[in-house]
């Protein structure tokens, strides 16, 4: 029995020392461009539950996930308007969800989006795509705003990036740059 164990250990050491053996000889194959890009999307993100509470989870392409209660949760947006009435006492930007009115949880428990179908749907869609800070709406005069003013208010709005995500993105950007530099075609 003892000889079999020694033989098995010797064979394992030999196999793990082969070049390209992932997880054994300390060799990690280089990550692909798609893997790095996927990680750039999946950085730390704040989501809002339907009741308004916030939680952190990896980011998604669509900016929404299903929370632990089976409800849609939407990624946080922030308003960078210096005059926004929602700014924190310390001057931090106002965070809010921008919930897609056509989003729902499908039969597999995943977020999905239906297409607008009726005239009312298309009006709702037009209103949704012009993102608006809910707090700035309290001080805006929508009926008399110029297109330039409306665009300025839209320009204040960006997806919120947590400080942890900023660090993750900087590391991933460096990794992507190194990947692209290494894989540039030569003439």
Question: How would you describe this structure to a colleague?
Answer:
With 187 residues, the protein is of the alpha+beta class. The chain has one domain (33-163). The protein is built from five helices and eight strands. Strand 3 and strand 4 form a beta hairpin. Helix 2 (33-41) packs antiparallel against helix 5. The longest helix has 20 residues, at 163-182. The model is unreliable at 1-18 (pLDDT under 50).
Spell the H/E element sequence. HHEEEEEEEHHEH
Structural class of the helix and strand makeup?
Answer: alpha+beta
Distance between the termini: 60 Å
Counted up, domains total: 1
Instruction: Let me know the number of strands.
Output: 8
Q: Taking Cα atoms only, what radius of gyration do you get, to the nearest Å?
A: 24 Å
Total helical elements: 5
| Low-confidence runs | 1-18
Global morphology: globular
Tell me about the biggest sheet? Answer: 6 strands, antiparallel
**What value does the average pLDDT take?**
86
Helical fraction equals: 25-40%
Bin the strand percentage. 15-25%
